[in-house]
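Consortium newsletter contribution from the modelling node. Members have asked for a concrete example of what our holo predictions look like. Here is one, prepared for the iron/sulfur cluster complex that several groups have been discussing at recent meetings.
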Amino acid sequence: MGLLDSALATKGAGASERLKILKRHAQAFLRHATAKRLWNFCKAERNRLQKRTVLDSMPYILKIETTNICNLRCAYCYDDRRAPAPGERPFGRMSADQFRGLLDAVGDYLFKINLYGFGEPFLFPETLEMIRLATDRNIGVGVSSNLNHRDPDLPRRIVASGLEVLIFSCHGVSQETSNRFMRGGNPELALENLRAVIDAKRAAGSQTPFIDWQYCVTGFNEHEIETAKDKAKKLGVDQVRFIKPFFPADAPDEWFSSRFPRQTFSHDAEASPGCSWLYRSAYVNWDGGLIPCCRDPRDLSVDFGNVLETPFRDVWNNAKYQAARALLADPSRNDLRPGIVCGRCPVTRLPRG
Ligand SMILES: C[S@@+](CC[C@H](N)C(=O)[O-])C[C@H]1O[C@@H](n2cnc3c(N)ncnc32)[C@H](O)[C@@H]1O
Ligand code: SF4
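And here is the predicted structure:
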């Protein structure tokens, strides 16, 4: 269940909520299926089960960061959004042409693109063009946004882009509470934009985007959960999720809620849900740097290659990918650890014994 939970973001959800999420993903899977995608999907899953190191399949879901620039400074996000140091990824954005090139390379295999990373996608107009490009190829697109924008036409354009899922990040309802987490943000503006997206959806008679309010629960915002539920219902939000955020272990007590108290994890491979990223997915940074997952997107030495400079297929099976898959299959291969980010991941740590 662990791998399914992390793939579908159902961790912590109740049984009926989990069933609803599963149903929605199954429907999206069928909506975007083609013979080529299904065949690739079967090969990718076979490769994963057989723990192969060289794959005859491509990823079937991608996380593509359009930009790592943001208008807010949420606590603990991207190292509190400090300026990049030497050897780290600069701030920047992907162009629509570069995105088109990526689609030419892998679009035929993709059921879904999560078009966001560590920045705010709707800061720049090319994101809407990218959504349209992917949607026209029958790829489902999901975007996560803080919706802190002062552009009256943005809600209509979001709906017109064909976006399938809009994750609305808002971790508090009142200005005071929300701002402790989302520094520089304005929840009133964000909720007004959310209402406008829902209005635009209704006006267009559109089923999409599915609106998924994501609320990271802390000790100082949990008292607003009921108000958030109420607002979500009144606005016509499709789903609201109160999730367990990630904070550093030394974060002050107020960041941990009674729902999700501070935990001391036993990070060993036995307790971990495993990893499917190396077979199913990957994270493309705005500059084309390909990393296996969203762990450590800043350090340029973590990149497995650059898919704006090298054919995607070549990076996907290069020496770093082969070493990472071999280590995942056999965590006792300590010789493979140096130089690959997976060597530092709890998932490849041997069980204590
Ligand atoms: C880094 S944000 C980038 C996209 C966009 N700027 C936004 O905030 O939605 C990506 C996702 O991380 C979530 N997020 C932010 N801080 C988090 C935390 N401490 N733990 C877990 N998720 C977090 C946001 O809610 C969002 O869905
Ligand atoms: S709005 Fe999103 S990207 Fe920006 S600081 Fe907050 S979580 Fe990070």
